[in-house]
Inverse folding.
């Protein structure tokens, strides 16, 4: 009887210490079931993480491709290509949701390493798992790279802090693995030493030495990029622009620190300011406690280094392209800020719990809405692809897609313009299990009163002059077929 009582106490102690991890693991199947209906849209149809049938994929995809070197994306695309109708995008969702769960568990371990209290670790782990800031990543089909870059980045930090033997070999190897998922993983080469120094786990001399090692890792990666036998193509969106950087900083601050339903707030066709204000009002007390009430508490070595690391983490995105999905890269540093702030309120635990429960209610409401919007966008693209195939009637080798510029507003990957959900015609290949059409070319014409007439005239010219079997004219979510 006494043994049973002791065993029961052990379980109670275990649950009291790790209740957030238990909750996260229990919620993962529900999270996965909710996300599975999300279909590919926009870039999902164009990246290397879609089904790939290139027989030379190692040379032309696994190594530097276009303006990316993401071998794990290429491997995933090759696996999906073995049975796209069964694996795509379901396998993507499994990898992303499971990766997000592991990230949440690693956040708990990261906070343990930095000596935060059990109370703050548990609250912060749940925050990371459910915050709407993650949803643009979790609902995307092509964001496996973003999730696993963070996952491997955190592991690299834990290796750097925890290991005695083989510390640097393990740290550097994990840095490269993070970077081969996505380029911002390389930033952990600097985050590791700076964050460790901020929490007094290394001295200034060691900081300088390890920063040089980190910079060396970055230099080796940069050299490898230039030595790979591929022409480096710089996408126009990646070109530096001071105005763009300022806009990206504003996006980063809002999506990271403010919890509100951005669809109801910013997407004009869906706008509902009452609901948007309500979701913000629910989350505001917790955010006020954490970031505003005692804002001076962040003016110390630990928090200044953490905020600097957050800037480092998102710098590659802020300097090029920043969308709501890229918030994910800086969330590990955000959890440290939150955990530190919660520890400063230990005498007000009840207030923290109550405000956090209100935040959770807001987060769940927003998350459900964001997922439903993503599902709706994907279904529009699927419907258009099926309509194009049905109207075409029989298999054709080549299709020319004429898109009439759509003035319908978009919002990240949640509310996508119909022709982007259609993938500029690429979604149709999936509907035929990539049997046809083999070639798709596209062009966009300006929206006007005579746009449909101009599109049909262009279609006639294309069919007469070029070796094109069929033309699809896309006007919002309508598909006209001209043979």
């Amino acid at each position: 009887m006494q043994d049973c009582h002791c065993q029961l106490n052990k379980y109670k102690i275990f649950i009291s210490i790790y209740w957030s991890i238990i909750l996260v693991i229990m919620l993962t199947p529900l999270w996965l079931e909710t996300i599975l209906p999300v279909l590919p849209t926009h870039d999902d149809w164009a990246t290397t993480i879609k089904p790939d049938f290139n027989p030379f994929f190692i040379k032309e995809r696994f190594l530097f491709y276009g303006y990316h070197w993401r071998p794990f994306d290429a491997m995933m695309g090759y696996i999906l290509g073995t049975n796209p109708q069964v694996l795509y995008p379901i396998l993507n969702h499994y990898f992303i949701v499971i990766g997000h769960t592991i990230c949440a568990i690693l956040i708990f371990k990261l906070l343990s390493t930095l000596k935060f209290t059990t109370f703050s670790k548990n609250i912060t782990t749940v925050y990371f798992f459910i915050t709407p800031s993650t949803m643009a990543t979790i609902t995307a089909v092509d964001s496996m790279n973003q999730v696993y870059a963070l996952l491997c980045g955190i592991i690299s930090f834990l290796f750097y802090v925890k290991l005695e033997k083989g510390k640097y070999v393990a740290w550097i190897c994990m840095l490269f693995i993070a970077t081969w998922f996505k380029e911002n993983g390389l930033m952990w080469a600097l985050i590791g030493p700076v964050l460790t120094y901020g929490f007094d786990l290394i001295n200034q001399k060691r900081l300088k030495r390890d920063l040089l090692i980190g910079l060396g890792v970055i230099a080796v990666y940069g050299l490898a990029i230039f030595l790979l036998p591929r022409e480096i193509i710089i996408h126009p969106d990646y070109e530096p622009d001071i105005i763009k950087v300022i806009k990206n900083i504003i996006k980063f601050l809002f999506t990271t620190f403010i919890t509100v339903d951005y669809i109801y707030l910013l997407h004009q066709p869906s706008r509902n300011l009452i609901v948007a204000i309500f979701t913000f009002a629910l989350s505001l007390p917790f955010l006020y406690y954490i970031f505003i009430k005692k804002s001076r508490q962040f003016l110390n070595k630990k928090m200044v280094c953490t905020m600097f690391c957050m800037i480092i983490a998102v710098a590659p995105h802020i300097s090029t392209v920043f969308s709501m999905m890229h918030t994910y890269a800086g969330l590990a540093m955000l959890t440290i800020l939150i955990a530190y702030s919660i520890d400063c309120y230990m005498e007000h635990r009840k207030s923290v719990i109550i405000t956090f429960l209100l935040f959770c209610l807001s987060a769940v409401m927003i998350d459900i809405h964001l997922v439903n919007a993503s599902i709706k966008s994907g279904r529009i693209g699927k419907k258009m692809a099926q309509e194009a195939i049905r109207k075409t009637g029989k298999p054709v080798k080549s299709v020319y897609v004429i898109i009439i510029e759509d003035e319908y507003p978009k919002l990240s990957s949640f509310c996508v313009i119909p022709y982007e959900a259609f993938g500029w015609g690429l979604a149709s290949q999936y509907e035929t299990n990539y049997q046809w059409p083999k070639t798709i070319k596209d062009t966009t014409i300006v929206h006007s009163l005579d746009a449909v007439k101009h599109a049909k005239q262009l279609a006639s010219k294309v069919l007469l002059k070029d070796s094109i079997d069929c033309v699809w004219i896309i006007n919002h979510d309508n598909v006209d077929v001209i043979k």
